[in-house]
Write a structure and sequence with these properties.
The protein is of the alpha/beta class. It contains eleven helices and eight strands. The protein is globular. Bound molecules: SN-glycerol-3-phosphate.
Length: 224
């Protein structure tokens, strides 16, 4: 089963999409939290009430050294929510991931721009890998292929990390990644909204309504 996340801390947007989609939880990063300036404590409390007890939150450390990342990750993991700690898949980050996996803290390796970076994070035991599809494509490379190649290596070496691709600008990128069979994905709000859009849908629904009312007036289906 696909784990579907929203890449936002916007409470109203999470409420909107939780009504109509099976949202597993929310992913944030320091930029998202800085933009809203709501703070993690407020955000997690609100979102947990909204999504429910099963909600999972992927929250990124802001520390810069291994020891500080490990300490921050421990504090995040101790919060009374289902937390996965996001750590950038840098040399420093991988050192922190190795230590934290020895403590069985759940980790998402983030800021993945290359296949090798994703593979190394998986070798270090990261539970989730977040390749940045659109950011890779904005740099002239094939973001979907990076995801596919990491997935191939995970299979080849029987590594248990789950791909959770992030950074999408359009629905085509999302569909191409979903066709690979990834285990999880996080979508920005604007792209999530685009998934519902097709110019033919509303005219079709309007035509059904018009045809019905022309014969049965205000009656409902079971009253006709
Ligand atoms: O957390 C990483 C992800 O949010 C990046 O997305 O849209 O900033 O490229 P974006």
């Amino acid at each position: 089963m696909l784990e579907l996340y929203l890449d936002t801390d916007d409470i109203e947007q999470v409420k909107r999409f939780t009504r109509c989609l099976p949202i597993k939880g929310v992913t944030t990063n320091p930029s998202i939290l800085a933009k809203s300036a709501q703070g993690l404590t407020h955000t997690l409390s609100q979102l947990n009430t909204l999504i429910g007890a099963e909600a999972r939150f992927h929250v990124q450390v802001v520390s810069q050294t291994v020891d500080e990342m490990v300490n921050e990750a421990r504090q995040l993991a101790a919060l009374p929510y289902d937390i996965v700690v996001k750590i950038p898949a840098t040399e420093i980050g991988l050192a922190a991931i190795k230590q934290l996996k020895a403590e069985k803290i759940r980790i998402l390796a983030t800021a993945i721009y290359s296949v090798q970076q994703g593979f190394l994070a998986a070798l270090c035991g990261a539970d989730y890998l977040a390749p940045y599809v659109n950011r890779i494509e904005a740099m002239g490379s094939d973001g979907v292929k990076v995801v596919a190649d990491i997935q191939h290596l995970l299979t080849q070496y029987q590594l248990s990390s789950k791909l959770l691709p992030a950074s999408f600008k359009n629905t085509q990128q999302v569909l191409e990644v979903l066709k690979l069979g990834v285990g999880a994905i996080t979508l920005p709000v604007d792209v999530t909204a685009q998934l519902f859009l097709h110019p033919a849908v509303q005219p079709a629904v309007n035509q059904f309504s018009q045809d019905w009312h022309s014969v049965f007036g205000d009656k409902l289906s079971f009253e006709s």
